[in-house]
Amino acid sequence: MLKLAPILAAVLYGIAYYMFSAWRTRQQLDQRSAELADAQLTRVLEPMAEALEVPRIPVYLYEIEPVNGLAAPDGRIFLTRGFYNRFRQGDVSAEELASVVAHELGHVALGHSRRRMIDFSGQNAIRVASAMVLSRIIPGFGPAIANLLTGMLAARLSRQDEYEADAYAAALLTRAGIGTEPQKALFRKLEALTQGGTPAPAWFLSHPKTAERIAAIETLERRWQPQAR
Questions:
Q1: Residue 61 has pLDDT above 90, yes or no
Q2: Residue-averaged pLDDT of the chain
Q3: 35, 115, 150, 189: most buried, per Cβ within 10 A?
């Protein structure tokens, strides 16, 4: 029983840390955001709302400069000021920005925020258990190897979430009559928009590679074509 105590403590820590992080994120979002009122974007989001059979899709503007979109644990969708500025400058179209909203809606609809609490707790337990075992086999290096392996697992789970949200967005955009071209076009721009540096190996990235994301969407399109005839 004593041997399981560190693992149980790691699980409880994971749950507590996730809940604290969610609370802190909600506080920051509440303090630094307001609902975005943009007529052009609203017009593009209207057919998406119709496809979802909801009155409207509220989007909030988060006052930070990095180019990003995010789904809060409470289900709200945010675009950063940096992303919105690129839209106002003409670097991103309204349809491309709508594809970001569709992607974040996918995270909400598929329960990724809630699942991350379970994932994080499990990863902490795996990290502690691995460190205990590896420290006996490779003294001095066990914790470092455990952290490396757990990081690879976390990146893989995160990439799977991104693929699922991409698929949801592709289906929603197609049903709304917008199509997937804006989604794929934005993927091609993302590295320049986010000023990405030298890419890390794919297994360390929390987001899949651009070419792989586009290929996954095109696979879906081919699968849907016979149904559209």
A1: yes
A2: 78
A3: 150
At residue 61, what are phi and psi to the nearest 5 degrees?
-100, 120
Distance (Å, rounded) from C-alpha 191 to C-alpha 179? 22
Q: Phi, psi at residue 97, to the nearest 5°?
A: -65, -35
DSSP 195: T
Q: Residue 45: exposed, middle, or buried by beta-carbon count in 10 A (0-12, 13-18, 19+)?
A: buried
Cα–Cα distance, 187 to 193 (Å, whole number)? 10
Give me the mean pLDDT over the 55-83 stretch.
92
Whole-number Cα distances in Å, 113 to 27, 71, 76: 16, 8, 11
pLDDT of residue 201: 39
Residues in contact with 150: Cβ distance below 8 Å, sequence separation at least 6, in sequence order: 123, 126, 127, 130
How many whole angstroms separate alpha carbon 101 and alpha carbon 173?
A: 10
Give 167: exposed, middle or buried? Use CB within 10 Å, 0-12, 13-18, 19+.
middle
Residue 202 main-chain phi, psi, to 5 deg: -55, -35
pLDDT tier at 197 (50, 70, 90 boundaries)?
very low
Name the strand (E) or helix (H) holding 59. strand 59-62
Contact 153, 123 (CB under 8 A): yes
- H/E stretch holding 156 reads helix 142-175
Phi, psi of 59 (to 5 degrees): -125, 140
CA 6, CA 69: separation in Å to the nearest integer? 36
